Structure formats: C-alpha cells, structure tokens
Amino acid sequence: MTYESLLDEKVETKVDQLSNHTWLRIGGTAEIATPKSKEEAIELLSCCKENNIPYRILGAGSNLLVDTNGITDLIIDMKKCCQSIEVDGTSVTAGASVKLPQLANYIIRHDLGGIEYLYSVPGTVGGGVFMNAGRGMGHNSTLSDYLVSVEFFNGKEIETQPREYFDFSNRYSSFQDHNDWVILSATFEFPEENEEDSTQKIKDRMLKTKSRERSLPNAGSVFKTGQPLPLKGLQIGDAKFSDNNRIINTGDATSKDVERLMKIAKIANKIIPGGRDLKTEYQIWKDDN
C-alpha cells in the first residue's frame, strides 16, 4: 500500500529501508515522508489525522530498534523541518530537528552551558525531550532540568505548554504516552558559562566516551539503569555486546538478534545475585498490522 495518493500532494513519499535511517543499521522497508518545514510538517500531520493514516515519527534514529520485516505505518522523518535556533539572553528556543551537539555548540558561543555532556549524544532536540536525555540516574542530570516549555502538535493543533504540564523522569517524558503529540520546538533557560570552560567540558566528555566502540553501528545504551553483569562479547548472529550496556551490529544483525541478546540480559539479571530489573532504553518499532 502507498500513502502518497491519500496525502493530497502534501508531501512526496518514498519507499526505503529503515536500516538507512537508524544508527543500528537495522530495519526493513517503509514508506517515508520528509517534510521540509514546520508548516509542511503540520499540514502533513493534519492530513494523516483526517485520513486515518497511521504514522510514526522518526528523528535521528539514534536509539531506535526497528523490525527487520519493516513497518507498514507511514514514517514521518522530522530531521529537516524544524531546524531554527533563537537566543534571547539565557533563553534558547530550538527546533525539534536541531541536533543536540549542534545546540550545545551554539549556546557555548553565546556563553551559555549546562548540556556539554550531551555533546556525545547524536540525537535531536525533539528526541532529547521525548527521551529526557541525560547522563544517567547516578548523575541526576537531564535535559528537562533546563526546559521551560514545549511547542507540539497535539493531534489537532499546535499547543505550547510549560515544563510543569509534563512528567519527566529517568529516560521518560509524557510524550512517550501520547503517540499523537509531536514535538516541534522547545524553549530552555541555560546557565551562563564561560565559553572556554564549556569547551573544556566537551573535550573531557568526548575523551571519556572515546573508549566506547563507535566504529560499528549501535544505538547507545540498551537499558536505562545500566547492566552490571559481564556480558561483553556475548553474541547472537551479528549482534554483539561491545560492553555491558551497548550492542553493536557487526554485519547483518536482525532485530530478532538484538532482542534475543536483550532477553538474555534481562533473564540473567533476574536470576543472578546483584542483578537489576532492567528497563529497555531503546525505542522498539514493531509492525502492528
């Protein structure tokens, strides 16, 4: 089935492998629409609602595991449509498509800081708010610490709400419970920070992450709370634990390969003393149809 005829020429679509759009390089065929502006994105989303077209929102694909068999829902690729950044003193409004490293670099040039640790995260502002990106439970630092408000499409119209309107916790936001809410931009209040000091923090962060396997496809942390057991090297098919909480695709890994590794880790943590009740950090896409 193709959705383009139902979209009334709102935006062109193309059929592609989702493995070309995810950092794990895993994912089957889907029809993808890529709006080029916020207005085009709103028109597309409204059209989908009016025509009962099921859709999923794709950002950078940096923490996404997609079914190797593909997805029949329309995929709306938001990487190009909301790329503006506006600074007014310590207030910064960034579009959902802005990359987190890009935002960190931008505010540094305005003597602002606070999110230097997110420079190593290849996600977008929209994805960062959606997942409440941060350094982990042990550091108690998340993007929502600086969030003032979020502009989003609520399924009918554009709405802007303050941070207090939403719930945030470790790797969680209210947006995960509302599939019809699509983040368009976010406004933050960042602390003043000397550019030289912020730049050094970024260098320190990148040095710390240098030891991680980055040459092969991966989607970052697998579990929200980390995974304490020595699973490094465990492999199923072409999916392999490169460290205790990171899975890499060494060739042609499938979504089932990755899911089996995750299942082993969860079972092991339940039966071995010192294990944890693991919560998956990946967003997992399976076809509902």
UniProtKB/TrEMBL annotation:
What are the FAD-binding PCMH-type domain coordinates in residue numbering? 25-193
Organism this protein belongs to = Halalkalicoccus jeotgali (strain DSM 18796 / CECT 7217 / JCM 14584 / KCTC 4019 / B3)
UniProt cross-references to Pfam families, sorted A to Z: FAD_binding_4 (PF01565)
Q: InterPro entries in the record, alphabetically?
A: FAD-bd_PCMH, FAD-bd_PCMH-like_sf, FAD-bd_PCMH_sub1, FAD-bd_PCMH_sub2, MurB, MurB_C_sf, Oxid_FAD_bind_N
Top-level taxonomy: Archaea, Methanobacteriati, Methanobacteriota, Stenosarchaea group, Halobacteria
Instruction: Write down the superkingdom of origin.
Output: Archaea
Q: Which HAMAP family match?
A: MurB
GO MF, one annotated term: UDP-N-acetylmuramate dehydrogenase activity
Q: Name one GO cellular component term.
A: cytosol
* Membrane spanning residue stretches: none
Q: What is this protein called?
A: UDP-N-acetylenolpyruvoylglucosamine reductase
Q: Which SUPFAM superfamilies match?
A: FAD-binding/transporter-associated domain-like, Uridine diphospho-N-Acetylenolpyruvylglucosamine reductase, MurB, C-terminal domain
GO BP annotations listed: cell wall organization
